[in-house]
Amino acid sequence: MDRTKTWDQELAKLESKNSEAQLGGGEDRLQRQRDMGKMTARERIDYILDPDSFTELNMLAEHQCRDFGMDKKKFVGDGVVTGYGTMDGRRVYIYSEDDTVLGGSTGKVHGAKIHYILRLAREHMVPVIGLNDSAGARIQEGMDNVYGITGMFFQNTLNSGIVPQIAAIMGACTGGAAYSAALCDFIVQVEKTSHMFITGPAVVKVVTGEEVTFEDLGGAKVHATKSGVSHLTAKDDRECLDLIRRLLSYLPQNNLEKPQKKQTNDPVDRSTTELLEIVPIHKSRTYDMKKVILAIVDDKDFFEIQPGFAKNVVIGFARMGGRTVGIVANNPMILGGCLDIDSSDKAARFVRTCDVFNIPVVTLVDVPGFLPGVHQEHGGIIRHGAKLLHAWTEATVPKISCILRKMYGGAIPAMGVHQIGFDQVFAWPSAEMQMLGAEPSVRILYRRELEAAEDSEAFLQQKIEEYQNLYLTPYHAASLSVIDAVIRPEDSRKRIISALEIMEDKVAENRPFRKHTNIPL
């Protein structure tokens, strides 16, 4: 035992190590990151968590690589800050990668720190937030990267459907790191200062000969509008973290809880007479479905998810009577509201997310059917549309459908009826529901009569009118109990909230044992 040691010396040594960890890659590199318009890894944590609530874990971890001069490139913490704290009083686990340390690259120890946080989040049943800013696998560590990177995928997948996982892309997120983010429930990406891809521009050029910039290959706009990988985008780091805070407010701590109710002064029985002005009764005229959503939800507050991708369907979170609800709505302004490959994927993923976190789903329906065309058929619209049908059937949360103007063909089950598992289905007096529209139905049903008629056009118009009056009204559907009620548009908010209230404690039906369903991916 060294009797010359003192407590002052030991505490000074600890303070020195802690200070070294706080500096990341050094003050110069931290300042360069700020000069780029980015926050540092620790500043991001301090901003998003409640003041003085962060407790760091594994602060003093270091990589153990000795090859390629790595024994001379040691950084306390190994390029990622990990721990837990509170956000608006709610417990969360969090990790924040540090681009100033070896580019935030992921080696064995860096990855192990993240694995640990992901596992603890699952064991303690609290959300986990990943702030990604990593150049990807640390090639100097060779096959140790298999442990560092792949272990993240494993833990993300085990967490899936148990605790909310939110990934922020706040710099580089390349190679395997991109898959870890993609395995989370939501991705928020910062514009201009972040990019996400599996293989970068240099590799793309060598393999395919294509020349592409970082922004055009994996920037926020690309992933928000073309690939659909990102759910939300932000103009800077602070807005990104604010979006995460808002998003988490709609989610529960885990799959055994419901989202917390929020007090509102918006009356549950408020009339929505403005809907008569927003929605034209003539089916050929278009309108903005988002205005319908704002009219019926609490305080006109709607948090749209994936607003730039597959815009023919609108998804997002809102509250009705203080309860969190998921909204899935057709958008007649884009493709007439038709469902297609991308919108089916978008809606199906959102429905499944709502279901695992006990969030009721409300559909607002105005859909002529699935988008026809060779591109859609060859692209697998059958398979992609089936994902949405699968998601609705699998979901056990309360599901409510309100048909505004039309609902045709394969889109009938895809947007919600009892036979696909919906609990309550309403329709406005203007609603039309049928397998086919009036004219094509008449041409099929009266083909021989049309051929024999002296005035085939007059006969056609007569039968179309008869068919519309008999079969295309919500009253026909109501007579067959396809819908529960024909409601006035101004009662839409009141009836939906009433349905949510009666289904507050809905218990899922018993289903046969299985490991999991086999969704048509």
UniProtKB/TrEMBL annotation:
Biased composition (Basic and acidic residues): 1-18
Ranges where the record places region Disordered: 1-34
Origin species: Desulfomonile tiedjei
Residue ranges constituting the CoA carboxyltransferase N-terminal domain according to the UniProt record: 7-263
Pfam family, one: Carboxyl_trans
Name of protein: Acyl-CoA carboxylase subunit beta
InterPro entries: AccD/PCCB, AcCoA_carboxyl_beta, ClpP/crotonase-like_dom_sf, COA_CT_C, COA_CT_N
Superkingdom, natural source: Bacteria
Occurrences of domain CoA carboxyltransferase C-terminal (ranges): 267-513
Molecular-function annotations in GO: propionyl-CoA carboxylase activity
Alphabetical list of Gene3D superfamilies matching this protein: 2-enoyl-CoA Hydratase, Chain A, domain 1 (3.90.226.10)
